[in-house]
Amino acid sequence: MIDKTTALERCDDIVALARRLGADAADAVMRADSAEGVSIRLGKLEEVSRSESEAIGLRVFVGQRSASVSSSDFSNASLEALAEQAIAMARLAPEDRYAGLAPRDRLAKGPFPGLELIDPVEPSPDELREAALEVEEAARSVSGVTNSNGGEASFSQAVVAFVTSDGFARSYGGTGHSLGASVISGEGHAMQTDHCYRSTRHRADLPSAGEIGIKAGERAVARVGPVSMPSGPVPVVFDPRVGSGLIGHLLGGMSGAAVARKASFLLGHENERLFDPAIRIVEEPLRPRGHRSRPFDGEGLACAPRALVEDGHIFGWLTNSAAARQLDAPLTGHAGRGIGGAPGVQASNVHCEAGECSPDELMSDIIDGLYVTQLFGQGVNLVTGDYSRGASGFRIRNGAIAEPVAEITVAGNLIAMFGAMRAADDLEFLQSVNVPTLRIDGMTVAGS
């Protein structure tokens, strides 16, 4: 895989080429990835995989017209044809008065903080195989597990470079280790499946294969024999692995791009107290070893930590340059950039801070309720905030988790759900958006 210097040079070359061919401004992003993985099923090697990819994206501006193109062919002839194509497309595009690079005076300036995103330890294929074998064996050792979907271990590396015609030129890299298992419990029509996966930047931060595998097995066994439950309004408690989706919906509603399109359920509510004051939601893009840590955003602005929700209020809209211009709002450094297309809006390393009570204490006064461990379907309307998703999990009876339940639906509206949200103290940083156990009273459950 190419290094950061080579990636920067390629971006710089194509931006300079686009300017020579007639672009008034341009930026380029390059990403190179490599990954290798091993999967084991029923103790036998099932698959060994390795992949590598490199791609570059170019965005050009001709006046207030713009176009984006991308390629994985880095020959001189191909890159020149790519730049020519982008400029020709831009000249035919409609004018957009909000288009343009980020303001030059807002571009990030070094030195950048050390984010510890690169692990110098690279596992061998044999080490990946042993890890995958161990995690599956641990999962299968749990009493009640009857079959396996397999154990997996993988290692990945990535390099990202970004260059603009205004002089910004930076790159960074990262690594990833992952380990997990998925197993089956029960027999015939009563079979249930569940899993446990963990991913980290550094291998030293991964839980042991035994811990991950046992968690996968216990989750699968606990799901055997689900029933439905009566319909009606009940307190709903969200397991952290699904509760993070609620914060994802909040981020979608706070997206300046969605607000500019009048497509956010938060429009008209931005000055209201939406959450209990005890709920605080924080973004930490510079967290060392964070899943989504980055020194700069997709337009070259410095990333900075901030409270997204404090004292019950959202701080404002998450913006890239186009959204900030259209909304006449502050530019917050939340541009997200893929290889193709214009920048979107993306937050980095978001979490809801832990509350003061344990999960058991959080649900101790629930006479009859629902503990959700899995959600299905796409029944969330980010324009209206209406929320309706298929769910499975466990019934809560007299303050304790009881029998498994399935084939039910949970429904509400995100504005009301945020207002009723309460948090336990079991926050862990396992993914890009993290929450503790969350409780929301007054949701509607539709069952039998």
Automatic annotation (TrEMBL):
The cellular component terms of Gene Ontology attached to this UniProt record, alphabetical and capped at eight, are: cytosol
Q: Domain Metalloprotease TldD/E central spans what residues?
A: 119-223
Domain of life, source organism: Bacteria
Q: Name one GO molecular function term.
A: metallopeptidase activity
Ranges for domain Metalloprotease TldD/E C-terminal: 231-447
Coiled-coil stretches are none
Domain (Metalloprotease TldD/E N-terminal): residue spans on this chain: 27-90
Q: Which Gene3D superfamilies match?
A: PmbA/TldD superfamily
Instruction: Report the record's Gene Ontology biological process terms.
Output: proteolysis
Q: Which PANTHER family match?
A: METALLOPROTEASE PMBA
Write out the similarity annotation: Belongs to the peptidase U62 family.
Protein's UniProt name: TldD/PmbA family protein
Which organism is this entry from?
Qipengyuania algicida
